[in-house]
Amino acid sequence: MATLDLVLALVLLLSLAAVAWPFLPYPLILRALPTKPEHPAPGPQPSASLLFCAYNEAAAMPEKLANLAMLKARHPDLELLAFDDGSSDATAALIEGQGDLVALIRGPGRSGKAHGMKQLAARARGDVLIFTDANVLLDADAIGNLLARYADPEIGGVLGSLHYIGEGESATASVGSLYWRIEERLKDEESRTGNVLGADGSIFSIRRSLYPDFPDSVLDDLTVSMAVVFAGKRLVKAKEVIARERLVAARGDEYRRKVRIAARAWHTHRHLRPQLRRMRALDRFKYASRKIVRWFGGLFILTGALAASALAWRISPWLLGAGMLGAALLAGIAARAKSGPVAALADILIAYAATLQGVAKAMRGRTVTVWNPAQSR
Which spans are transmembrane here (predicted)? Predict the structure, then answer.
């Protein structure tokens, strides 16, 4: 009996350690690693093309287009390209209404972001391809600061820093903001020690010569950014390249978004697996710590909860009953709470559940090609 108790306690501790790994042990290990310096060389700044895809983003377009006009005024040679994925609102008309500010490609219907970005990349002429989202705004100095990092010939890709707007509007937004601040710090440390392991679509860039070929079913942000690492170049993060985006405030919107992203991320992982296996040991460690361990966080939480329940039962069935009653009451309070620590805890668990559901969906051979903008941002 004592042996079973020990096994259950060990499973519980390992589950807790796995959940905590990306947020506590992994950052501490990164901080202990030496800095890998950059080596800029004199020369002209590369030319650039800025690309984004849009679907039913009419509400965001006026602010987005004004932001692009400001960037174009500061960088007259910046090429601006957009792909409309069959919008049913005024998105395409608003872009075309700006004259020659943005070159627009209209898709034949819903074909997805990966397909759209490939169309834009094939048309782009800049030495550097800058990828962003339709609802993301770039600070005035973002383009100049980003291109300056390409003075080092070993740098093949540069990520920016995403700052969220509206973090106090709901518990979901607050949790999303906290999660992203942790994510940004991890990327900073990964960049300092060599490579960041993957980018999100808000703001990142690569040298056009490194743009890979890939199917429409993968997560293009991860696939394109990892091509830099696979090519033996550095993928770094620039804190001074700032993008701003409004947070998703509703749990339903955020849940669906995380399921979609996780499904496509796991599908992409399987597509990239042969190249991932050939990465350097440090990069494989980073990738596993920040991505694979986190994708299965919901499973670790479930395993830990089952181990804790079994231990409680072995101590006393009454203890297990009291614990289950307390969890049920807490779940009921969390379902109605709009703010505070209980609501935040609920959103954290919901995020883990959504990610696990997305991974499970991808493991069954299903993925998501198209997307819909969140209504609550």
Answer: 292-311, 318-335, 341-360
- Helix (DSSP H) and strand (DSSP E) numbers for the chain: 14, 8
- Top-level CATH class of 1-377? alpha beta
- Where are the chain's structural domains? 1-377
Strands (E), the chain: 48-54, 79-84, 103-106, 128-132, 137-138, 155-165, 203-207, 234-246
| C-alpha distances in Å from residue 89, one per residue of 54, 85, 109, 170, 177 | 11, 11, 13, 28, 29
Residue 59: closest CA among 376, 296, 288, 326? 376
Confidence (pLDDT) at 372: 65
Could you tell me the strand order of the sheet in which 234-246 lies?
A: 103-106, 79-84, 48-54, 128-132, 203-207, 155-165, 234-246, 137-138
- The angle at the Cα of 236, spanning 288 to 22, to the nearest 5 degrees, equals 30
Q: Using a cut of 0.85, tell me whether the model's pTM lies above it.
A: yes
Three-class DSSP category at 152: coil
Greatest C-alpha distance within the chain: 77
CB atoms within 10 A of CB 181: 14
